[in-house]
Write a structure and sequence with these properties.
The complex is a heterodimer of chains A (477) and B (136). Chain A is α+β, with helices and mostly antiparallel strands. Chain A is built from 15 helices and 19 strands. The chains are: A alpha+beta (477), B alpha+beta (136).
Chain lengths: 477, 136
């Protein structure tokens, strides 16, 4: 570890002001000793760069899955003052509201004798990878409604159950969405991609709950050992990517206009109260709503397939929760004893609100919100609960995944997709992807251990482990 | 090879070299196509589309050009075979190619956007060199 970094506790570290010029607050990040060995210098610099942004409150925060991104590091969290603060697309990412959801089923492993058949059927049913096309035809008016209503819009179109809506963060529909700030180009990219999984680290996974750490909370969440569940990880597709591209350009000019000095061009930003900042927020919220609708439509495709294949009912596959991990949101937080509305950026980080928060579904309010942490292709995913510790330390945030440690080019050189798929098959995991490189690039070895990351947030008290899910079948985009 | 993939943990970082600025822009377009579609067969183009981009400086120009190209790939399902450009203070030209076919073009990974992070466009003794990150 860089000798300017101070270790505060077993899992908490601080980057002092002065690490890069112009830091307004320190950097603060969470890592176990093991994870600290793999921390990239570039990620530290990015975390420190975020601390230079106007109106940042308390810390520039890094979760244990922190790695080198652009602008903000992946795994970065920062809250900004409503009056003095800024909003930055670099603190959200290209894939606005990339997120994860999980549904449970009444099935057990013994009910699925042909897992390969199920994986093949899912692969054929859910449009996946580069060049895939939407299963639905949206008109411009349909899209406008979707950009405002999000998951509710998809449910109204017949893609889901009313009960799904309140099981999404923000009820699947962020307030403040302004479709007029979403460009024609973004709409053109969004219309043919609605209800598609995408590629890269996006996936759809059939899992089995193989360990329960907290029986009481697991029961409250509706999860039991041996249960088959499905996890979906994707975002706002080309629509969100284009919104990021469009508004980065606008905010580049705004940065100069408002005299904001930046250490990295990709941190382009504007005051939250400026017309440019408000325009980005409106477009970003609309993209987030599109992403919730997207995940809702994919969920519907999965449920229909399970109904037809296994003869179970649609209603027996409830949504446990849906979390966003690339987003900026207005939230209420206590800052040095004062209750404030602040704009929290989470880039590769998950909201982890603790018990009692009104934003959490009432049935979960006593135990904290469900937090879904996907593992890499061959490793376990986790269900956690938000904590009051997260409210105190991280503006109610925790990690979002395992975090890469090996580049894609190195991954492809170290083993072929076929070798990775065969190794996973030996462990009883079936993988389907459009090409072999997609499997090699996402091999389990290229990620930090999901277990190590999740245990770090548990030990740091910013969320707590409820259950572990083991992968059985994976579709990679 | 005029472009090569450099190490980057999460995204695709490319180094592209060319003798002149126009070739650099064309080659960077090919690098984007290779990332998205993998290695694909050379075929006679069946579709062509005009492309135009502007920028306040050369870095913004290349980012905007590649963003336009990405838009074309995603909305027209175009896989480029020939990129013909005129590059000055702005870029204009024609992208000719074929329509995406999963049997031939599914060897790559979706690009979300063109990043300014770590971007460098420099003049060298032999021409130009671009280092650029495609966010995936």
């Amino acid at each position: 570890m860089n000798d300017q970094i101070h270790q505060i506790t077993k899992t908490e570290w601080e980057i002092p002001q002065g690490f890069v010029p112009g830091m307004r607050v320190p950097g603060h990040f969470f890592l176990s000793a093991n994870l600290a060995r793999n921390l990239e210098e570039g990620a530290l610099t990015q975390l420190a760069n975020v601390a230079t942004l106007p109106g940042i409150i308390r810390y520039s925060l890094g979760m244990p899955d922190i790695h080198w991104g652009y602008g903000f590091p992946i795994g970065g969290v920062a809250a900004f003052d409503a009056e003095k603060g800024i909003i930055s697309p670099g603190g959200v990412g290209f894939d606005i509201n990339c997120g994860v959801r999980m549904i449970t089923t009444p099935l057990h492993v013994s009910d699925i004798p042909d897992m390969k058949g199920l994986v093949d059927d899912l692969y054929n049913a859910v449009p996946t990878g580069v060049g895939s096309k939407s299963p639905i035809r949206l008109s411009q008016n349909d899209l406008s409604l979707m950009l405002v209503e999000g998951a509710k819009n998809a449910v109204d179109m017949g893609y889901g159950m009313p009960g799904d809506i309140h099981r999404c963060e923000e009820n699947g529909s962020m307030k403040g969405a302004v479709p007029e700030y979403v460009s024609k180009k973004a709409r053109q990219r969004g219309i043919p991609q609605c209800g598609t999984l995408g590629s890269g680290n996006h996936f759809l996974e059939v899992q089995v709950v193989d360990e329960i750490e907290d029986e009481t909370t697991a029961k409250t969440f509706g999860v039991s050992k041996g249960q088959i569940c499905v996890m979906i990880h994707c975002g706002s597709r080309g629509l969100g990517h284009q919104v990021c591209t469009d508004h980065l350009q606008i905010l580049e000019s705004a940065t100069k206009k408002y005299g904001i000095e930046l250490p990295d061009r990709q941190l382009a930003c504007a005051p939250l109260s400026s017309p440019e900042g408000e325009a980005y927020f409106g477009a970003m919220a609309a993209s987030a709503n599109y992403a919730w609708a997207n995940r809702q439509i994919i969920t519907h495709i999965v449920r229909e397939l399970f109904v037809n294949k296994f003869g179970i009912s649609y209603e027996e596959m409830p949504l446990i929760y849906d979390v966003a991990h690339n987003v900026a949101k207005w939230e209420e937080h206590d800052v040095d004893g004062v209750h404030k509305t602040v704009c929290v950026h989470r880039k590769g980080a998950t909201r982890a609100f603790g018990p009692g928060r009104s934003e959490i579904p009432h049935e979960f309010r006593a135990c904290g919100q469900p937090v879904l942490i996907p593992g890499s292709m061959g490793t376990s995913s986790y269900l956690l609960a938000g904590t009051s510790g997260a409210m105190e330390k991280t503006f109610g945030s925790t990690c979002h995944g395992s975090g890469r440690v090996m580049s894609r080019s190195s991954a492809k050189k170290s083993q072929t997709g076929e070798e990775v798929a065969n190794a996973l098959l030996q462990q009883g995991i079936i993988v389907r992807a459009p090409n072999s490189a997609a499997i090699a690039e996402e091999a389990p070895d290229v990620y930090k251990s999901s277990s190590e990351v999740v245990h770090t947030v548990h030990d740091a008290g910013i969320s707590r482990i409820v259950a572990r899910m083991r992968p059985l079948g994976v579709i990679k985009g | 090879m005029v472009f090569e993939e450099l190490e980057h943990t999460a995204d695709v970082r490319m180094k592209i070299s060319a003798q002149d600025i126009t070739s650099l822009f064309c080659e960077s377009g090919s690098a984007l196509a290779k990332t998205m579609y993998g290695s694909y067969p050379i075929e006679t183009p069946t579709h062509s589309f005009p492309i135009v981009a502007e920028g306040k400086d050369q870095e913004e120009l290349i980012v905007n050009f590649l963003s336009e190209l990405l838009f074309l790939f995603e909305t027209e399902y175009l896989v480029p075979q020939k990129i013909t450009l005129s590059v000055g203070t702005s870029v204009s030209g024609i992208v000719a190619g074929v329509i995406f076919d999963r049997e031939k073009h599914a060897g790559g990974i979706g690009v979300k956007g063109i990043s300014y992070s770590g971007l460098s466009l420099t003049k060298t003794d032999t021409g130009y060199e671009l280092i650029i990150i495609f966010d995936i």
